[in-house]
Write a structure and sequence with these properties.
Elements (H helix, E strand, L loop, with lengths): L1 H19 L13 E14 L8 E8 L4 E8 L12 E10 L5 E10 L2 E4 L31
Parallel strand pairs: 3-5
Antiparallel strand pairs: 1-2, 1-4, 2-3, 4-5, 5-6
Length: 149
Amino acid sequence: MNRKKIFFSFFLLLTSISLLAQTPSFHYFDHKKLTDIQGQVQSIGYEEVYGKKSEFLMLSILSDDQRLFRVEVCPQWFFATDIAVGMKIRIHGSLLQTSDDTLYLIAQEISIKGESITLRDSKGFPLWSRRGQPGGHGNRKGPGGRGKR
């Protein structure tokens, strides 16, 4: 029984690492493909998703129904909530399927420890991109003004 647990944990680790290296070549938020997943954080990473200087927070989530999702969250400077491997999380976002059948989710809202964090408006427009607009969030302080610089 112990060997099975070790093997399964090793398998999840390898799968999580391989998922973090996969990003669809062309992807966008599609409000017609919204879904909710709930599960546990398997891995946390940062990468340049859109070829810009700002790295995005990327998560690997094992859903309650045992499917593995790669989740694009937001630029790392915008996300100011502590998150760790093993945490339970709920994500509402746009589901994409890559050419290799990887489940890829662009997050619109994340719920961790009872706190809901909105990342995109109802149309999927990123809140971190509203620099200079009235009521915008482009001040590098993230949701709730708790952000990192």
